[in-house]
Amino acid sequence: MYRIVDARDVGLNIRQLVVEAPRIAHKQEPGQFVILRLHAKGERIPLTIKSSDPEAGTVTIVVQSVGKTTAMLNCLRKGDSILDLVGPLGRPSEIENYGTVAILAGSVGTAMALPTASALKQAGNHVVFVEGARSKEMVIFEDEVRQSSNEAYIMTDDGSYGEQGLVTEKLNELIAAGRKIDFVLAVGPVPMMRAVAQLTAPLGIKTMVSLNSIMVDGTGMCGGCRVLLGNKSKFACVDGPEFDASLVNFDVLMQRNSMYREKECQSLKHFQEHTQEELVELRAELAEKERELAELRSIPIKLNPKRRPMKNEAQNV
């Protein structure tokens, strides 16, 4: 069980949760993620790690309500618990001194890009961070975006905040103005990452994208997160989540990500119609799990002095 020690809204339908997870907090590196299961019958979903605090033993995850599980998760409060949290998963971001780095992030991708941006800045890069959002209400972590970079630009689709336009338009503007960009990282919606790849590939700019594939186990066994790189298949959970943007087949990725959309919409609709009942049931189930764990922890561990040694133990005596 993983207890929520802080929960707050950070944008429209976007919530930040600070969760007790000491082992994950001590090992998490930029670019990695967790897989969460809210309750025993719940689905397993990958979530962004915004930061970790090894001393406090906590990780901060950011959740956007897009389906039943994320909507239910965003209803939880400080003091509630999550059944399973597995991580850190995936390969960490490759941190080196490239020169001038452009980080393009949209939606909750901004949260995942923050630790990588900070690490790249500390490695001596000049970091240009371009955050994109549909509107002002969806701009998140602006102060941290500015702290983790040398230059920061906020783009909104409707022009309600920052500059009006897309993150790719800002990148194209910088390149057209003669800025030399040595490395690009794009994190966010698949159409945005594809647009970035289409822009940078002809220019020969090394570009990585962090893919948000459907995942279940997080160990490469289920194959749900399979992505096509050229003529090779890779698993986002163990080989990624970051891949060379010029090799990613974004059409296949978008097709696979939409496989369960109809069922997701049905589940979300049911939850929205029965929110209170489902939350009461969820909290009752998690409370019962807490009691079971408390009982297990209270059982004293006793060693049997008369136990016969195992064969290998006997040989080592």
From TrEMBL:
Residues 1-95 form the FAD-binding FR-type domain. InterPro entries: Cbr1-like_FAD-bd_dom (IPR008333), Dihydroorotate_DH_Fe-S-bd (IPR019480), FAD-bd_FR_type (IPR017927), FNR_nucleotide-bd (IPR039261), PyrK_electron_transfer (IPR050353), Riboflavin_synthase-like_b-brl (IPR017938). Residues 272-299 form a coiled coil. Keywords: Coiled coil. GO terms for molecular function: oxidoreductase activity. PANTHER family: DIHYDROOROTATE DEHYDROGENASE B (NAD(+)), ELECTRON TRANSFER SUBUNIT, DIHYDROOROTATE DEHYDROGENASE B (NAD(+)), ELECTRON TRANSFER SUBUNIT-RELATED. This is NADH-dependent reduced ferredoxin:NADP+ oxidoreductase, alpha subunit. It comes from Candidatus Sulfuritelmatomonas gaucii. The gene is nfnA.
